[in-house]
Specification:
The protein has helices at residues 42-45, 50-70, 81-84, 89-100, 109-121, 162-169, 177-194, 211-220, 228-231, 238-249, 253-256, 270-283, 296-307; strands at 2-8, 12-20, 26-35, 74-79, 103-106, 132-137, 142-148, 151-158, 205-209, 235-237, 288-291. It is α/β, with parallel strands linked by helices and 316 residues long. The strands form 2 sheets. A 6-stranded mixed β-sheet has the order 8-7-6-9-11-10, with helices on both faces. Strands 3-2-1-4-5 form a 5-stranded mixed β-sheet, with helices on both faces. The model has no long low-confidence stretch (mean pLDDT 92).
Length: 316
Amino acid sequence: MRVAVTDIGTNSTRLLVAEIAGDGSLVERERRTAITRLGEGVDASGSLGNAGIGRVRKVLDDYQRVTREQAVDASIAVLTSAVRDSANGEEFVALLREHYGLEARILSGDEEARLTFLGAMSERSGTDTLKTLVIDVGGGSTELIVGVRDHVDFHVSLQLGVVRQTERHLHQDPPSEAALRALRRDIRTLIERDVPLRERRGVDRAIAVAGTATSLAAIDQALEPYDRERVHGHRLELTTARLLLARLASVPLAERRKTRGLHRDRAPTIVAGVAILIEVLEAFALDGFEVSENDILRGAALARAADAGYARLGLS
């Protein structure tokens, strides 16, 4: 079965076209990412703006051509924090269904956590019994999921995201020390409020997915062009993340855009993203994380194939 999954998030719109076999194995055929900033201003206005919707539609026009060329059996779209939090989210979903023919749905926090964990853990060995924290830093929310193999023990969707926290705190260029302290204090407060202390202890490792984590891996290795194979599985220490935060926050946006390994469109929000990752690691008493390219896109593709009765949904 060939499945196309479009992840329409607060900061980016991404596409995965994958071939899924009956045993649940997956082969990627196409993967694309565009920074569309759909959630721009949602935190203040409560609604998706016309500019953000227009940027997403332009990208979807291109993705639609790709999926037609790939002759997919199913084309789905998953929508997360920005649409979930907006007053006109359902109208946007209706547009996606009617204009693009997508099986589009707004994911609940529970669904987003399950699919993210499924994607991140999908290549793990059957003998892997480490208790794992999966961190998904998005534009409007951050998903924290704790479990072993294919079983989720705890998850939470924090109202923390790179767009949301940038708009709330980082108004100077470069950000002031006071703004950075306020940003990190805000992040820490939300983590401590929404994640019980018992859940923040006893975790063996962290796996981080999505744009902030993959960008940090690329920056750490000075990758130009971006190399998915070198990013996937890269280990980033907490001490390195702290150094990178100091480096990225110390320069104005124009200079930050020139950082080797960082996509220029992620430069406006990368400082908030790194701060979130650091605060999560510190809250869980972890000294680093592994970066994974396997995320909600992969999880949604596997789940769709299983729902169609085509693939057995198991983690290999």
